[in-house]
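Step 1: inspect the first sequence and its tokens.
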Amino acid sequence: GRVDYALRLSNMNKVFIEVKRIGEALEDHQEQLLNYSFQEGVKLAILTNGITWFFYLPLHEGSWEKRRFYTVDLLQQDTEDITARLVDFLSKENLVSGKAIDNAEKIYKSQQKENILKNTLPKAWNKIVSDPDELLIELIGETTEKLSGFRPEVDNVEHFLAKYTDRFLISEVAPTPRRHGGTPQPRLTTSPTVKGGYLGKSIVGFTFLGARHLVRTWKELLVTLSEILYRTHKADFQKILSMRGTKRVYFSRDPNIMKQPAQVNNSQFYVETHFSANFTVKICLDLLALFGYSKQDLSVEAQ
């Protein structure tokens, strides 16, 4: 019956904000927040884990998902767009004048939503096939096993996607095709982000806070970075246990619930390593954010 934060004007609740840990699945908590918001007559509610922000109009009809009118992702969306939306919905000036709710209602009802979805769906598809997450890797692996009786390794699925990515992309938003002719040379990629990806590439090493580390596998990247953070943040390293995906945990004290666990510094903690290259880098970036580092603190070298 309590909410983490409330924005109030003249002793009246205007916005409820419920805050969860980084990496926590927000969908599991929306009913609690929205029931309370509905009971209190609060017109605007927010559920966030610090990275993802769900915006709701609790007094509307329909399921909780239908009452969610907008989502902000600090790691995926453009900074200017994020800033504009936070001002639209949360600035004191807009809350005092009532414009914040008007802005939310316009997003909820307007054709702008349909236009944005129409333009974004092809981009979302291209991102999924060129930068696959764990769910796509798992789905392809499970389906292959059902058809053939054999389950492919993550690397097998990743190389398959890398080989045929150009065929999967929707051309109207696809990147400019490479010119043919000549023998393509391996290209060294150094980047602090997952965008564009490491699909089908081999890792050479990584640099964290100016210190370079040579590694041979993507698994070794995740394990080595986890060990560095364990040594630096040993007292509060247990908060990594909050990091989990839709189907599995990323860190645990119990290796038996993992597919390919690796022990961190001979400690009580284990890290899951059964991930694609891109998803391994994503988890590394989420891990850095958990301890207050910037994604610019990590640079990955691959070819």
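Step 2: inspect the second sequence and its tokens, then contrast the two.
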Amino acid sequence: MEHDPAELLDLCRAGEGLRVEFKRGLPADAKIARVLAGFANTSGGMLLVGVENRGRLIGLEDPDTVAVELERIARERIAPALALHLGTVELAGVALVAARVMRRRGAPHAALDAEDHPEFVQRRGSKTRVAAGEALRGLLADPGIDGLDELARAALAWLDGAPVAADVAGLSAHLDLGRARARRALESLERGGWIWVDGQDEVRRFCSAPR
């Protein structure tokens, strides 16, 4: 699924938060790894590179190189490695890189610091914080996908096998559900960060993993 420019513009206007972070460019690997792992360990999120803290679009001179670096960091500086949905997009005449992170499926992700020490991190508001004490115990005990109910797991499995983004009607037919129930299942998964959505109302389409 391609990143929707209208959605990205809305994110820039709304500002940073639990599931959104902006970067002018790429800082040190460890800082980016913390942001990405924090999203995955909480409820997913979107990193936009080429955007100032207050949401002003400044763009990137070489977005393709930034995208390659993000993919490398997610692979080499996060354990276990993290899959990203990456894309370059032009907004208001400037080029940005968008990296969408889905909520983790199994074990939590650790970000490796500059000395290769693993840190378990989570999002707290618009910040990424080290998980310690009760927060760390909760993160390590979180069952991930196993904690979803049977319908949610069935919907997620169906989306995983779909060759393209899918919609409410498709899930309704596949699982022999009423459309209202299928919609509630998908929207619940989206709110939890397990899947992402593009479009509005009857043209909303869902996808669960990078294609």
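Step 3: confirm your contrast with the notes below.
The chain has a mean pLDDT of 92. The beta strands are 20-23, 45-49, 78-79, 85-91, 94-101, 110-112, 118-124, 127-130, 196-198, 205-207.
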